[in-house]
Amino acid sequence: xxxxxxxLSNVATVSDTAQRRQMGVVCRNWFLLTSERILAxxxxxxxxxxxxLQWKMNIETLDHEIYIKRTCELAREAGERDDDPYGSLLxxxxxxxxxxxxxxxxxxxxxxxxxxVLARRAAEELEPEVVAETIMYTSTEPxxxxxxxxxxxxxxxxxxSVSGEHASELRGGGTGGIPCDEVFDRLGSDITVLGPVxxxxxxxxxxxx
Length: 209
Ligand SMILES: [Zn+2]
Known about the structure:
Blueprint: E1 12-13, H1 17-22, E2 26-28, E3 31-32, H2 42-59, H3 64-80, E4 87-92, E5 95-101, H4 114-125, H5 128-132, E6 134-140, H6 144-153, E7 157-162, H7 164-171, H8 180-187, E8 192-195, H9 199-208
The protein binds zinc ion.
Residues 113, 115-116, 142-143, 145-146 line the site of zinc ion.
């Protein structure tokens, strides 16, 4: 699959969840750029979804890979500390504004997942308009607990390296839980989901711990 996230000349959106999964990309409310499936033109999207497109234009100027690499470093830090190997960060306007790692063992707290901690901090410390334009980057797709927290916080987007399903395969157990886009859908949240991005990096983290 030829994917690009950097330009708006060929803009498509794939609305069917099953189809997106088949393509190997979770792409909710995201304008997937591909040479094969052009489902809407830029003009059509502007007519129906002007605000989202404007925001997506900003998000597309970001280099997702830099941030995903950093989440994998954070995940390794957690793993080396004997916590579960997960790391996340928040980006607003191209700037990393918060970082966190899994600390379930360090803090003896089953809810100490980085995404949930960051969602809580974002809601507490940032203006709602800023939260809505903030992207969560995370080494593995958020679990349903964290996805719920992110929806309640009102974050704008999430980009992950490894899907929950793939992570559970790598870690040898579980079902992978509920995909985050399904949680967002059920909660009526319009958080943009993008992943996997740099899947090999996230996979290598899981294989290390
Ligand atoms: Zn979680």
